[in-house]
Amino acid sequence: MTPRDSQVLTGALPAELTATARVPASTANLGPGFDSLGMALGIYDEIEVRTTATGLSVRVEGEGADDVPWGPSHLVVRAIERGLAAAGVWADGLDVVCRNAIPHSRGLGSSASAVVGGLAAGCALAARFDPALAVSPDRLVQLASEFEGHPDNAAASVLGGIVVSWTESAEVGAAARTYRAVRLEPHATLRPVVLIPQERSSTAHTRGLLPETVPHGDAAFNVSRAALAVVALTQRPDLLLPATADRLHQGQRAPALPLTTAWIARLREAGIAATVSGAGPTVLALTTSGFPEELRELAAADGLRVLEPGIAEGVLAG
Fold first, then answer.
1. Helix H or strand E encompassing 44
2. Which whole number is the average pLDDT over 183-204?
3. Pick from 131, 134, 186, 272: CA 20 to 30 A from residue 124's CA?
4. 146-156 pLDDT tens trace
């Protein structure tokens, strides 16, 4: 392995250091909070990494085992290397094992989870070498968001719970950005349910469907609903249905997500707060009582896998 970071690297890690990371899935937007609201979900990828004298070995089990690269371009490997470089060290060789449960390209933050897990594992390796090299959660949010280009999924996987995230730059048009997030504690009765289709969706494609500008009225609508969502998710779950309404992105993506769109409408007509999870095609439903069995059966008949993953804590690494 060779160092890739532009900062000064101070030393190579010895062989046979080990670290693990367990990272949750995430759902973003939660309706009106486009690129800002996120939630960690209890579906987990696990990463094991060991330093070696030379070379690279990558093994992938579970989701993505047949369709992701098993070499230096693997997202987890790149993130491990970035975590090491951020600490000012490198490894001459790595043995990496990924055990994946988060569905890929379904709007459940699989790429953000891969990045967060790899970064956390790399930083944990550096901390094994020298505890002074440990990184803070805020730093991990920054590093992961640099990969993603926006912090909502990454921050949720780092911090757990519900997150509000935002982006700062030194000046308008500046390339360097600072990514920040704060964690909110969800209301004790809040129960997320995900309805996962078999087909996949491209984030780049669905994001490309969004217009460059939006009407002032739609922007004002989403500002009010995003603010209301913070209240509903943490204090007033009885307000979840109006708080998850959106005019900025879900309607624009609807033609590419017909099954998702139909199920969101069906659930909302039944009084259940439902949104597109991230860029889709998964449907996120937010409830305070169980998901109705008749809807579960109808979803299964439409080829949807229904999971109740719970709201997760953030990444664990060591």
1. strand 37-52
2. 89
3. 186
4. 998 889 999 99
Asked whether the predicted pLDDT for residue 112 surpasses 90, the reply is: yes
Radius of gyration of the chain (CA): 20
Nearest to 286, CA basis, from 100, 162, 200 = 162
And the tokens for 132? 């002074």
Residue with tokens 């330093």: 51
Q: Which two tokens stand for residue 86?
A: 């951020």
Residues pairing with 48 in the sheet: 20, 97
pLDDT, greater one: 203 or 121: 121
Domains of the chain: 11-162+313-317 (3.30.230.10), 191-307 (3.30.70.890)
d(Cα 63, Cα 178) in Å, to the nearest integer? 32
pTM above 0.90, yes or no: yes
CA proximity to 79, closest of 36, 101, 52, 49? 49
Structure tokens at 259: 């099954």
Residue from 115, 39, 119 nearest 87 by CA: 119
Tokens at residue 29, please?
């937007």
Hey, what are 212's tokens?
Answer: 């460059």
Query: Is residue 5's pLDDT more than 50?
Result: no
